[in-house]
Specification:
289 residues; mainly alpha; 2 domains; 76% helix
Length: 289
Protein backbone atom coordinates (compact mmCIF):
# COMPACT_ATOMS: atom_id res chain seq x y z
CA UNK A 1 0.00 0.00 0.00
CA UNK A 2 1.88 3.00 -1.32
CA UNK A 3 0.04 5.52 0.84
CA UNK A 4 0.81 3.65 4.05
CA UNK A 5 4.41 3.19 2.97
CA UNK A 6 4.71 6.94 2.50
CA UNK A 7 3.17 7.46 5.94
CA UNK A 8 5.85 5.22 7.47
CA UNK A 9 8.49 7.17 5.61
CA UNK A 10 7.07 10.47 6.82
CA UNK A 11 6.79 9.27 10.40
CA UNK A 12 10.42 8.23 10.60
CA UNK A 13 11.76 11.23 8.69
CA UNK A 14 9.94 13.85 10.76
CA UNK A 15 10.55 11.74 13.85
CA UNK A 16 14.24 12.61 13.62
CA UNK A 17 13.58 16.28 12.94
CA UNK A 18 11.35 17.16 15.91
CA UNK A 19 13.12 15.69 18.93
CA UNK A 20 16.28 13.75 19.70
CA UNK A 21 15.20 10.17 19.33
CA UNK A 22 17.87 8.17 17.59
CA UNK A 23 21.56 8.53 16.90
CA UNK A 24 22.41 5.94 14.28
CA UNK A 25 21.15 2.68 12.86
CA UNK A 26 24.31 1.11 14.17
CA UNK A 27 24.35 2.08 17.82
CA UNK A 28 27.75 0.65 18.71
CA UNK A 29 29.48 2.82 16.14
CA UNK A 30 28.45 6.06 17.85
CA UNK A 31 29.63 7.60 21.09
CA UNK A 32 26.59 9.04 22.89
CA UNK A 33 28.43 11.97 24.41
CA UNK A 34 25.75 14.64 24.65
CA UNK A 35 22.54 13.21 23.15
CA UNK A 36 22.35 16.62 21.54
CA UNK A 37 21.41 18.15 18.18
CA UNK A 38 24.74 17.36 16.56
CA UNK A 39 24.22 13.66 17.22
CA UNK A 40 20.66 13.91 15.97
CA UNK A 41 21.93 15.49 12.75
CA UNK A 42 24.27 12.54 12.29
CA UNK A 43 21.39 10.13 12.78
CA UNK A 44 18.82 12.03 10.75
CA UNK A 45 20.78 11.60 7.52
CA UNK A 46 21.08 7.87 8.09
CA UNK A 47 17.38 7.40 8.76
CA UNK A 48 16.40 9.61 5.82
CA UNK A 49 18.63 7.61 3.49
CA UNK A 50 17.11 4.36 4.74
CA UNK A 51 13.53 5.52 4.32
CA UNK A 52 14.17 7.18 0.94
CA UNK A 53 15.83 4.12 -0.55
CA UNK A 54 13.94 1.37 1.20
CA UNK A 55 10.33 2.57 1.23
CA UNK A 56 9.59 4.99 -1.58
CA UNK A 57 9.21 2.32 -4.26
CA UNK A 58 7.78 -0.54 -2.22
CA UNK A 59 5.23 -2.05 -4.59
CA UNK A 60 5.67 -5.77 -4.03
CA UNK A 61 6.37 -8.41 -1.41
CA UNK A 62 9.98 -8.50 -2.52
CA UNK A 63 10.39 -4.75 -2.04
CA UNK A 64 8.79 -4.95 1.39
CA UNK A 65 11.08 -7.81 2.42
CA UNK A 66 14.07 -5.67 1.48
CA UNK A 67 12.75 -2.64 3.37
CA UNK A 68 11.75 -4.35 6.62
CA UNK A 69 15.27 -5.02 7.97
CA UNK A 70 15.95 -1.28 7.80
CA UNK A 71 12.71 -0.57 9.64
CA UNK A 72 13.58 -3.12 12.31
CA UNK A 73 17.02 -1.60 12.71
CA UNK A 74 15.51 1.85 13.07
CA UNK A 75 13.22 0.60 15.82
CA UNK A 76 16.18 -0.95 17.62
CA UNK A 77 18.03 2.33 17.37
CA UNK A 78 15.09 4.26 18.80
CA UNK A 79 14.92 1.99 21.82
CA UNK A 80 18.70 2.15 22.25
CA UNK A 81 18.54 5.93 22.32
CA UNK A 82 15.77 5.86 24.90
CA UNK A 83 17.96 3.68 27.12
CA UNK A 84 21.04 5.85 26.81
CA UNK A 85 19.65 9.37 26.53
CA UNK A 86 16.49 9.44 28.66
CA UNK A 87 15.96 9.10 32.38
CA UNK A 88 13.78 6.28 33.70
CA UNK A 89 10.57 8.32 33.79
CA UNK A 90 11.04 9.66 30.28
CA UNK A 91 12.00 6.23 28.97
CA UNK A 92 8.92 4.50 30.37
CA UNK A 93 6.60 7.16 29.00
CA UNK A 94 8.26 7.20 25.60
CA UNK A 95 8.03 3.46 25.19
CA UNK A 96 4.33 3.53 26.01
CA UNK A 97 3.78 6.22 23.40
CA UNK A 98 5.79 4.40 20.75
CA UNK A 99 4.34 0.94 21.37
CA UNK A 100 1.67 1.23 18.66
CA UNK A 101 4.16 2.27 15.99
CA UNK A 102 6.48 -0.62 16.79
CA UNK A 103 3.59 -3.05 16.74
CA UNK A 104 2.46 -1.78 13.35
CA UNK A 105 5.92 -2.22 11.83
CA UNK A 106 6.16 -5.77 13.16
CA UNK A 107 2.76 -6.69 11.70
CA UNK A 108 3.62 -5.08 8.39
CA UNK A 109 6.87 -7.02 8.11
CA UNK A 110 5.46 -10.39 9.12
CA UNK A 111 3.85 -12.74 6.61
CA UNK A 112 0.13 -12.83 7.23
CA UNK A 113 -3.26 -11.25 6.63
CA UNK A 114 -2.21 -7.71 7.48
CA UNK A 115 0.72 -7.75 5.09
CA UNK A 116 -1.41 -9.32 2.34
CA UNK A 117 -4.04 -6.61 2.72
CA UNK A 118 -1.33 -3.96 2.73
CA UNK A 119 -0.04 -5.16 -0.62
CA UNK A 120 -3.49 -5.62 -2.14
CA UNK A 121 -4.27 -1.91 -1.85
CA UNK A 122 -0.95 -0.70 -3.28
CA UNK A 123 -2.03 -0.16 -6.93
CA UNK A 124 -4.91 2.19 -6.11
CA UNK A 125 -3.08 3.95 -3.31
CA UNK A 126 -0.45 5.13 -5.75
CA UNK A 127 -3.15 7.15 -7.49
CA UNK A 128 -3.90 9.26 -4.40
CA UNK A 129 -0.31 9.71 -3.20
CA UNK A 130 -0.16 13.35 -4.32
CA UNK A 131 -3.44 14.20 -2.58
CA UNK A 132 -2.46 12.61 0.71
CA UNK A 133 0.93 14.31 0.46
CA UNK A 134 -0.87 17.67 0.52
CA UNK A 135 -2.81 16.57 3.60
CA UNK A 136 0.40 15.60 5.33
CA UNK A 137 2.16 18.80 4.33
CA UNK A 138 -0.49 20.86 6.10
CA UNK A 139 -0.25 18.59 9.12
CA UNK A 140 3.54 18.82 9.23
CA UNK A 141 3.34 22.61 9.08
CA UNK A 142 0.87 22.56 11.97
CA UNK A 143 3.23 20.41 14.03
CA UNK A 144 6.07 22.84 13.36
CA UNK A 145 3.90 25.75 14.45
CA UNK A 146 2.90 23.95 17.64
CA UNK A 147 6.53 23.16 18.40
CA UNK A 148 7.57 26.77 17.77
CA UNK A 149 4.77 28.13 19.93
CA UNK A 150 5.66 25.67 22.69
CA UNK A 151 9.30 26.71 22.68
CA UNK A 152 8.38 30.39 22.69
CA UNK A 153 5.96 29.90 25.59
CA UNK A 154 8.59 27.96 27.50
CA UNK A 155 11.11 30.78 27.09
CA UNK A 156 8.56 33.32 28.34
CA UNK A 157 7.69 31.19 31.36
CA UNK A 158 11.33 30.68 32.28
CA UNK A 159 12.10 34.38 31.89
CA UNK A 160 9.18 35.33 34.14
CA UNK A 161 10.24 32.74 36.70
CA UNK A 162 13.82 34.03 36.77
CA UNK A 163 12.71 37.65 37.12
CA UNK A 164 10.36 36.83 39.98
CA UNK A 165 12.97 34.64 41.63
CA UNK A 166 15.57 37.41 41.58
CA UNK A 167 13.00 39.92 42.88
CA UNK A 168 11.97 37.65 45.77
CA UNK A 169 15.57 36.89 46.64
CA UNK A 170 16.51 40.58 46.60
CA UNK A 171 13.57 41.46 48.88
CA UNK A 172 13.94 38.39 51.13
CA UNK A 173 10.55 37.01 50.11
CA UNK A 174 9.44 33.41 49.78
CA UNK A 175 9.66 31.96 46.28
CA UNK A 176 6.94 29.35 46.85
CA UNK A 177 4.20 31.28 45.07
CA UNK A 178 6.49 31.95 42.13
CA UNK A 179 7.32 28.26 41.82
CA UNK A 180 3.63 27.34 42.03
CA UNK A 181 2.71 29.84 39.32
CA UNK A 182 5.55 28.60 37.09
CA UNK A 183 4.48 24.96 37.41
CA UNK A 184 0.84 25.87 36.76
CA UNK A 185 1.76 27.86 33.64
CA UNK A 186 3.78 24.90 32.33
CA UNK A 187 0.86 22.51 32.83
CA UNK A 188 -1.61 24.84 31.14
CA UNK A 189 0.70 25.40 28.17
CA UNK A 190 1.27 21.65 27.83
CA UNK A 191 -2.47 20.95 27.95
CA UNK A 192 -3.12 23.51 25.24
CA UNK A 193 -0.37 22.01 23.11
CA UNK A 194 -1.77 18.49 23.56
CA UNK A 195 -5.18 19.63 22.35
CA UNK A 196 -3.62 21.14 19.25
CA UNK A 197 -1.61 17.99 18.52
CA UNK A 198 -4.65 15.71 18.86
CA UNK A 199 -6.88 17.96 16.76
CA UNK A 200 -4.24 18.54 14.09
CA UNK A 201 -3.92 14.84 13.54
CA UNK A 202 -7.67 14.34 13.46
CA UNK A 203 -7.72 16.93 10.69
CA UNK A 204 -4.97 15.09 8.82
CA UNK A 205 -6.70 11.72 9.14
CA UNK A 206 -9.95 13.22 7.89
CA UNK A 207 -8.25 14.83 4.89
CA UNK A 208 -6.27 11.70 4.00
CA UNK A 209 -9.18 9.31 4.50
CA UNK A 210 -11.49 11.33 2.27
CA UNK A 211 -8.84 11.36 -0.46
CA UNK A 212 -8.45 7.58 -0.29
CA UNK A 213 -12.18 6.93 -0.16
CA UNK A 214 -12.96 9.08 -3.21
CA UNK A 215 -10.57 7.12 -5.43
CA UNK A 216 -10.17 3.68 -3.86
CA UNK A 217 -13.42 3.10 -1.97
CA UNK A 218 -14.39 2.32 1.59
CA UNK A 219 -12.31 -0.82 2.01
CA UNK A 220 -9.04 0.91 1.19
CA UNK A 221 -10.00 3.93 3.31
CA UNK A 222 -10.81 1.60 6.19
CA UNK A 223 -7.42 -0.07 5.92
CA UNK A 224 -5.60 3.26 5.73
CA UNK A 225 -7.51 4.49 8.74
CA UNK A 226 -6.78 1.27 10.62
CA UNK A 227 -3.08 1.74 9.97
CA UNK A 228 -3.16 5.08 11.75
CA UNK A 229 -5.33 3.68 14.53
CA UNK A 230 -2.72 1.02 15.16
CA UNK A 231 0.11 3.51 15.29
CA UNK A 232 -1.88 5.78 17.56
CA UNK A 233 -3.48 3.33 19.97
CA UNK A 234 -1.27 4.00 22.99
CA UNK A 235 -1.37 7.77 22.57
CA UNK A 236 -5.15 7.80 22.16
CA UNK A 237 -5.66 5.98 25.44
CA UNK A 238 -3.15 8.12 27.31
CA UNK A 239 -3.77 11.66 26.12
CA UNK A 240 -6.41 12.18 23.41
CA UNK A 241 -9.55 10.51 24.72
CA UNK A 242 -11.13 13.80 25.80
CA UNK A 243 -10.97 15.58 22.44
CA UNK A 244 -13.86 14.78 20.09
CA UNK A 245 -14.24 15.98 16.52
CA UNK A 246 -16.79 18.55 17.71
CA UNK A 247 -14.29 19.91 20.24
CA UNK A 248 -11.73 20.29 17.48
CA UNK A 249 -14.19 21.95 15.12
CA UNK A 250 -14.90 24.53 17.81
CA UNK A 251 -11.16 25.25 17.84
CA UNK A 252 -11.22 25.94 14.10
CA UNK A 253 -10.01 22.59 12.75
CA UNK A 254 -11.52 21.29 9.51
CA UNK A 255 -12.95 17.84 10.27
CA UNK A 256 -15.83 16.75 8.05
CA UNK A 257 -16.34 13.11 9.00
CA UNK A 258 -18.19 10.62 6.83
CA UNK A 259 -20.35 7.54 7.02
CA UNK A 260 -20.04 4.47 4.85
CA UNK A 261 -20.80 0.78 5.11
CA UNK A 262 -19.09 -0.50 8.21
CA UNK A 263 -16.94 2.58 8.48
CA UNK A 264 -18.17 5.49 10.52
CA UNK A 265 -15.97 8.49 11.13
CA UNK A 266 -17.79 9.72 14.22
CA UNK A 267 -17.44 12.36 16.90
CA UNK A 268 -16.30 9.76 19.39
CA UNK A 269 -12.83 10.48 20.74
CA UNK A 270 -12.17 6.75 20.76
CA UNK A 271 -12.58 6.84 16.98
CA UNK A 272 -11.31 10.24 15.95
CA UNK A 273 -8.15 10.74 18.01
CA UNK A 274 -5.12 9.50 16.09
CA UNK A 275 -1.41 10.09 16.59
CA UNK A 276 1.50 9.09 14.38
CA UNK A 277 5.13 9.14 15.35
CA UNK A 278 5.24 12.79 14.40
CA UNK A 279 2.55 13.60 16.94
CA UNK A 280 4.13 11.30 19.49
CA UNK A 281 7.36 13.23 19.36
CA UNK A 282 5.68 16.61 19.55
CA UNK A 283 3.55 15.40 22.42
CA UNK A 284 6.51 13.87 24.23
CA UNK A 285 8.21 17.25 24.12
CA UNK A 286 5.15 18.85 25.70
CA UNK A 287 4.81 16.22 28.42
CA UNK A 288 8.47 16.23 29.45
CA UNK A 289 9.11 19.98 29.30
Amino acid sequence: MYNVVKQIKRSFAVFTALIITVITTRVRAVNFRTCGPEELAQCAKTISDVTDRGLTFVKSKEDLDRACPDLDESLSCIHAYSRLCMNLKQRKHFRKLFHGTGSMVRDLCRNGTYQDEFLSHAPCMQKVADETELCFRRYSEAMTQIQTATNRQKEMEEAAYRNNHHYNRHHNKSDAENVHHYQKAKREAADEGLKSVCCSFQEYVDCSTHSVRRTCGDEAAHFSRGFMDKMASSMIKMHCMDFSADDCRERGFRIRGFHSEGFYYSNSPQVTSHITALSILTMLTLLLR
